[in-house]
């Protein structure tokens, strides 16, 4: 698919960023949401890149494919002729690429691996690893070919909320500490991109107390560091249950008998307890949803997938994200 055949702007006027950073507390499904967002943004003949940086090969597992190499490759097609490519960024490979790009070491740079120089470099300068990872993401986001962007959007499956501020801010810290040279220039360029309107950091959560609290804390941290927060994405939401009058055990027993079902005491008490638990759960979810709304950011709710997250489920989530735009 040639670049001239693809639309110039990302899908959806409400998803205007070019780099979409997806974070969330562990267990909220942030990787699934990142994959679905890449599908959504590729709809209609666009091309997106889905990137992971934690070495978990989560993208390969989601799409039931071989482990991703340090190379951009076709992952899946999107509705309307779009394409999603994927990349697993490896810090060691990124360092070798960096050395070749800026210092022209070529094969000599790769020989450093035999002497453990790469492990040494990332050990004495821990932030260097994240600089290399975000630097590769920045390069893909801004890359052009024939005068056009290679990718309409890049989606980064980023570290969880507990580490996202430090991960994104390391380039600014490195630029501040480095006096001159390619590392300073590279860090400044990445830091500028991450704080520009080209970037949006989306936070994935569940309607549960700990994920919502981490979401609130992460948004406060990201805002204080100057990163543009995009949307709060509430994953795995259940259809709303209309509020109604409390049904007494006597009414439950009467209804069960009318339906020709067992109405013994254990059955009735079990159903009454379940109804009570559901009412408490609904009240808690409503309260947590209010807490999220009060953050005054766009809110997207994605449905619970009873059968788990497979390719069909990813397309369901992608469709919901498209509708949200």
TrEMBL record:
ArsA/GET3 Anion-transporting ATPase-like domain: residues covered: 20-176
GO molecular function: ATP binding; ATP hydrolysis activity
InterPro entries: ArsA/GET3_ATPase-like, ATPase_ArsA/GET3, P-loop_NTPase
UniProt KW Nucleotide-binding keyword: yes
UniProt keyword terms in alphabetical order: ATP-binding, Nucleotide-binding
Pfam families according to UniProt: ArsA_ATPase (PF02374)
Lineage top rank: taxon: Bacteria
Protein name as catalogued: ATPase
Organism: Salinispora arenicola
């Amino acid at each position: 698919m040639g670049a001239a055949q693809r639309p110039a702007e990302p899908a959806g006027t409400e998803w205007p960023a070019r780099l979409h950073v997806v974070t969330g507390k562990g267990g909220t499904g942030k990787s699934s949401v990142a994959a679905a967002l890449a599908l959504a943004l590729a709809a209609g003949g666009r091309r997106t890149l889905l990137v992971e940086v934690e070495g978990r090969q989560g993208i390969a597992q989601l799409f039931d494919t071989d482990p991703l190499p340090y190379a951009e490759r076709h992952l899946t097609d999107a509705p309307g002729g779009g394409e999603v490519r994927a990349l697993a960024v490896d810090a060691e490979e990124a360092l070798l690429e960096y050395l070749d790009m800026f210092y022209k070491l070529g094969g000599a740079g790769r020989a450093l691996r035999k002497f453990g120089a790469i492990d040494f470099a990332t050990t004495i300068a821990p932030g260097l690893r994240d600089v290399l990872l975000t630097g590769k993401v920045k390069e893909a986001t801004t890359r052009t070919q024939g005068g056009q962007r290679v990718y309409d959007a890049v989606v980064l499956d980023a570290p969880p909320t507990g580490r996202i501020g430090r991960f994104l801010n390391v380039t600014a810290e490195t630029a501040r500490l480095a006096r001159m040279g390619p590392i300073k220039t590279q860090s400044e360029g990445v830091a500028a991109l991450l704080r520009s309107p080209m970037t949006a950091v989306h936070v994935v959560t569940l309607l549960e107390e700990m994920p919502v609290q981490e979401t609130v804390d992460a948004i406060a941290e990201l805002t204080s560091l100057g990163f543009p927060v995009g949307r709060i994405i509430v994953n795995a939401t259940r259809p709303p249950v209309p509020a109604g009058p409390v049904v007494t055990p006597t009414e439950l027993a009467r209804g069960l008998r009318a339906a020709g079902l067992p109405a013994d005491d254990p059955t009735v008490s079990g159903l009454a307890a379940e109804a009570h638990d559901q009412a408490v759960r609904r009240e808690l979810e409503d309260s947590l949803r209010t807490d999220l709304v009060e953050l005054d950011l766009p809110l997207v709710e994605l449905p619970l997938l009873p059968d788990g997250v497979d390719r069909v489920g990813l397309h369901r989530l992608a469709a919901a994200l498209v509708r949200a735009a």
